[in-house]
Amino acid sequence: MRIKTIGIMTSGGDAPGMNACVRAVTRAAIYEQWKVFGIYRGWEGLISGDIKELNTEDVSNIIQRGGTILKTARSEEFRSEEGRAKAAENLRKFNIDALVVIGGNGSLSGAEALAREQDVTVIGIPGTIDNDLYGTDSTIGYDTALNTIVECVDKIRDTATSHDRIFFVEVMGRDAGFLAQNSAIAAGAEAAIIPEDKTDIDQLATFIGRGIRKSKNSSIVIVSEKDGGAMHYAERVRTEYPEFGVRVSILGYLQRGGKPSAYDRILASRLGVASINALKEGQRNVMVGIKNDQIVYVPIARAAKLDKPIDKELINDLYVLSI
Description:
Elements: E1 5-10, H1 18-31, E2 35-39, H2 42-48, E3 51-54, H3 81-93, E4 98-103, H4 105-118, E5 121-126, H5 142-163, E6 165-171, H6 178-187, E7 191-193, H7 203-212, E8 219-224, H8 229-240, E9 245-250, H9 262-280, E10 286-291, E11 294-299, H10 300-305, H11 312-321
Parallel strand pairs: 1-2, 1-4, 4-5, 5-10, 6-8, 6-9, 7-8
Antiparallel strand pairs: 2-3, 10-11
């Protein structure tokens, strides 16, 4: 199929660098003399027809901005086959030959269902701070969020050491511990409690027994938001180890905000151009990713459904460095 017109949308949680990617996709498509339509508010906007043509000027001066100019929203209607049929009808109404979707696991799962049911050509681009998509070393927004967390933990440590306390810092990541594990290493934290670390029956007891009881009066523990998060572990310390002062800091949505890092801007730009190259090559229903600094194409179903493994060496590295 010869491409003449594409649609572009951002979906799910926003991530720093999404705007840089929208800019790259739009300009790379216009360079090929294709029309570009921006779809506003994700799948909800595609169903309601909140769609307008984009030109080069529309994406000027956005590479440095966080969030997404196309907005994003959850859509219950799109979860149904009838909702996806409405979305496909609007693609046909605007003569859109292919859809570029920037988002995370849920967004790409929706894209895969739309492609499978409605014979729509879809290209996915990994945009999520969680870095949990299979087949790519990094996702747009992850690097910026990681740096935001480290900056916050550096400041929290000042208070932790001043008051001889254990601080549990809760970070995002959904079912993946990439943000927690790597921010713990980067910030010099004493421990990270993540879903992927199943080596200890009780990660908290191991941390208490090994670290603070022996040589430290204050500690930083980075906790993934899963399974009760930081509040769960803080309550356990208050109950089981009442001799220790404990505080909780839940970083929340500030992890998603801010200007994207240079790395995220470059990654977003490369993946945006790669999405257009994929369409030129006749690719359908793939996610463009990055492996060993090279662009790769991953079947969108695999990217959305398979679990991305964490490097267990990182867990050992933090264990060694936290003595």
